[in-house]
Amino acid sequence: MAHEVTVMGREGCHLCEVAEAEVARICGELGVAWKAEDVDTDPEWRAEYGDRVPVILVDGAEHGYWRVEEDRLRRALAQP
Fold first, then answer.
1. In the chain, which ranges are continuous DSSP H helix?
2. Per residue in 6-33, pLDDT tens?
3. Rounded to an integer, what distance in angstroms lies between the CA atom of residue 24 and that of residue 29?
4. Strand, coil or helix: what is 6?
5. 3-state class of 57 per DSSP?
6. Can you give the C-alpha Rg of the chain in angstroms?
7. Domain span at residue 67?
8. Distance CA 25, CA 48 (A)
9. Per-residue pLDDT band at 1 (split at 50, 70, 90)
């Protein structure tokens, strides 16, 4: 199964920029697709994630927020 990582963030968020750079590096090394989404473009996303950005999703499920836990993310992406 191919995994996909999504970083839910917002414009002007320094932690979001750091998380996106870390996810890009990790996913690039592992050959995993990733994307970034702006929570402020959708009222439901803003309500769900607004105060906790960045939120990291793996295959659509919340994996963590505020910081990328590299070892934990790598383990999740190594699972079939």
1. 14-30, 43-49, 70-78
2. 999 999 999 999 999 999 999 999 999 9
3. 8
4. strand
5. strand
6. 12
7. 4-78
8. 26
9. low
